[in-house]
Design the sequence.
């Protein structure tokens, strides 16, 4: 993962250098603020990696990578409003630190800023880059809307859940990789194949995240597990468990008049005894394997393919 | 105004044909809904007019014109959330008819859709078209943020007010014209000159709107006048009046413990006696004249220049 770590450092330095100095200040300060909160910078690092995979220097894709990271943070600012989230990466969310109007408008400005960075790519690849970026941006909106809709929906099918996480999370990983490949001059077939690597690994990554949310060790996962369980969130495990539970177990899975720690423990045990955790791990592994098939097909540089394979493995084998 | 009316009909038909049929439906229905509420379609009509001004067919700029109209409606959807507006063109606003989450997300999707329509322009002009569009989009956000900030600001200078309406309203008129010119292959100097025509006429138009909001006849203006007065909105007239009022008059201008009709009447009288209405009309006329100078300089087709001059006159001489 040395290369990927090098890319994330490149991104980190580039972000620190960006000036969002327009007026009025309360439109621009939230942009610098949310970008300064960190995060893993995985998406823009993938853009740089894909660019090197096809023989160009990582720095050539730097503006496109920043566009991806700014877009990702735009979606966080608006999602945090909808989720009524107070904290993001341990700090106050934009709508909490400022207010909701500012969070809406700064988010809008970030979406436009993302297009401004993207428009710096070579004119020759600009139409193709814009196409995948806009399509992805729309799909991320669709995914977020589906996620919101699922909250009040009695039944969610596993296929619908996977489609939701594909749209909300994984298409942006595919897009980040595809744009890096396009900037490096890769063919559309190659770029599309790499997109699917990102798409599949993104789904595996999100399922892993759901498993970690239920079973992760706090000191390794970075937050207290059980959030999804307490919110009765219809993750792949909850959907599986509800489908396999008897009436009494169903009540336990959705119980709300119960102490938090006890609820988490009960549901964790049901996720295990009903085979829901094992099922989630199998599905995750299926998408992981599919991702590797796409990576293998790539005709990019071997060193970078190996690096991306290591990265993929790291993504889905984070501390359990 | 026959040509402009023809363009607005072209836009109206094109909008009726657009299908926003993605899933989930509650992300896409608000897009069709807000676009179906009508409006004058002035901005996209200007894009078509500018395209014909430089010798191309209006239809060649149709996608770009739709991008402008979709962007304009995106900004209305998000502004209505911030303004807590229940009605837009006599119908429920998106956040009222659905909810706030949907209004945020549908708005985001519309902004992306606008870029998708815009990306259909000829590759040769795409970078220049993207540049003015993104710059304008950012400025519209800045204008809206300034407008929100002014609400809680004790003192607003006239210059700041004019800068706010330039950003919030008039740059989009300039952008609409410039993009039409670029699509038709006009030089950057010509396109920029036409931009300034739109920018100046847009400021005149907004000042006219402020005057109509205070003095318009309801049956002609389309809404009951006095809204800005009741909200103590710092329009150009209010700023002028506060600067020229004695202490007693100041209290009347900002009074809130008074019946609505009486407040409107008192403030209208003060706007007249303090010379604020006359001042606003002078400033409006100054921008109108500056706009005409830019139009005169254009080397576009005479018939279209005449049409745009008639349009400009109509814009700022609406029923008073």
Sequence:
């Amino acid at each position: 993962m040395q290369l990927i770590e090098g890319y994330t450092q490149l991104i980190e330095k580039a972000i620190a250098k960006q000036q969002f100095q327009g007026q009025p200040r309360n439109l621009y300060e939230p942009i610098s603020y949310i970008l300064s909160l960190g995060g893993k910078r995985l998406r823009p690092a993938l853009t740089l990696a894909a660019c090197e995979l096809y023989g160009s220097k990582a720095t050539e894709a730097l503006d496109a990578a920043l566009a991806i990271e700014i877009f990702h943070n735009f979606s966080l600012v608006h999602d945090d409003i909808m989720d009524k989230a107070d904290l993001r990466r341990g700090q106050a969310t934009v709508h909490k630190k400022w207010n909701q109007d500012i969070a809406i408008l700064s988010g809008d400005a970030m979406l436009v800023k993302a297009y401004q960075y993207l428009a710096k790519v070579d004119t020759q690849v600009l139409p193709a880059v814009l196409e995948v970026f806009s399509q992805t941006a729309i799909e991320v909106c669709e995914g977020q809307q589906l996620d919101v809709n699922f909250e009040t929906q009695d039944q969610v099918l596993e296929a619908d859940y996977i489609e939701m996480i594909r749209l909300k999370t994984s298409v942006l990983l595919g897009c980040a990789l595809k744009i890096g490949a396009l900037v490096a001059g890769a063919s559309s077939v190659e770029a599309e194949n790499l997109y699917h690597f990102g798409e599949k690994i993104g789904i595996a990554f999100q399922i892993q995240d759901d498993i970690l949310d239920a079973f992760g060790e706090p000191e390794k996962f970075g937050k207290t597990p059980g959030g999804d369980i307490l919110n009765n969130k219809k993750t792949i495990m909850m959907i599986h468990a509800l489908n396999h539970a008897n009436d009494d177990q169903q009540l336990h899975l959705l119980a709300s008049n119960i102490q938090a720690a006890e609820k988490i423990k009960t549901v964790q045990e049901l996720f295990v005894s009903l085979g829901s955790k094992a099922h989630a791990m199998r599905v995750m592994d299926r998408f992981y394997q599919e991702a590797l098939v796409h990576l293998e097909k790539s005709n990019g540089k071997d060193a970078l393919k190996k690096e991306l394979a290591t990265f993929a493995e790291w993504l889905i084998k984070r501390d359990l």
Summary: The CA atoms of residues 182 and 191 of chain A lie 6 Å apart. The two ends of chain A are 20 Å apart (CA to CA).
